[in-house]
Amino acid sequence: MASDDQVPMLERAELPEIPTIPKETAREIALLEREFVDAEVKALRSSIPLLRPLYTRRSALITSKLAQSDFWPRVFAAAPEEIDNYILPSDAEIIGRLLKNLTVERFSVNEKGDAGEPRNLRFIFEFDTASEDNEWIEGDGKLVKEFYWRKSVWKSEKSGKRRVWEGLVSEPVRINWKKPEADPTKGLLGVACDLADAEKKVAKNGKVTAEQRLELPEYEKLVKEVAKVEAEAALHAECEGEDHDHDHDHDDSPAGMSFFAWFGYRGRDISAEESEAAVKDDDEYFGKIARGEKVEGDDEKEGEDDDDDEDYEDDDEDGLMDAEVFPDGDDLAIALSEDLWENALKYYVQSFEDADAFDSDIDIDMDDDEDDDDDDEAQRPRKKSKA
Asked: DSSP secondary-structure letter at 185?
């Protein structure tokens, strides 16, 4: 038998070293991954002209035959978790009572589908502000938010290595609320819009510098508000983890705030000109790899630690990461465009099949237990169907 002081087996065993990928193989992998992405983007671009007339027909069908059955509120009611998780009970009430139309456009692609960035997105939300149920939004109720696919190439200040980021960026969209109490973002969206407006006033050559942004009082105010929301969300998560009693009206969204704060999402501060230059740089870089030429970073030793998460920590020179009101805004935009928008008819039909997800006056066979959840404050309010 082994003695009590014997060294554990895992400490005695000679475990194999973690294998490293040879530099040439890593270059081939990177090049092939890029070609996959390019092929997917081309396929998406070519599909858009084919889908546009179908979406037009769908819109006509909704307007002529389905508008009175709360089409878009029902679609949101049956949305997948990737979207539904971001919608609070207060958000659901606004969407259920006022949302009359949603349009998603990949507006940069031309009619032939052979040019234009297909990942650029335009969301058009139309709310019925003339409705007697409207307690929230002023104006015509039309909210337009655009997302642009941008790229950035830089050299890490810590490691000196080449780094590339690409993704969706946007500008905050202000919503005119009837009164402060009606704002589900608790003023956060307005503060984000105030900062964007202040930046435009001091910007030179169309873009504010990092120094200018950091000196703005609107920036300081927004950072404090974001930190406050994050602290409240962390405290709420801690309380839930300890199974403490908590207010069911508290934000249960992964973002820690209202769905309508999504209209304040910005992402990185990358202009169209900067992105164009980065795309050119990246094309040249991979062109050299394809030709077998030497590229930046070839002098690094194989097996060097490639875990460079810290390189990104110092990449917030413009301060926008600390001032981001909806960190998952790009993910939600993609989910809305690639899932909810494309599969709207499916989710509409599904809302009737899953009758419990949406209160309805439509004759559907179901148990008469509607009163069982009357005192469930956490249940999301839904609009009654007019059908």
From this structure: T
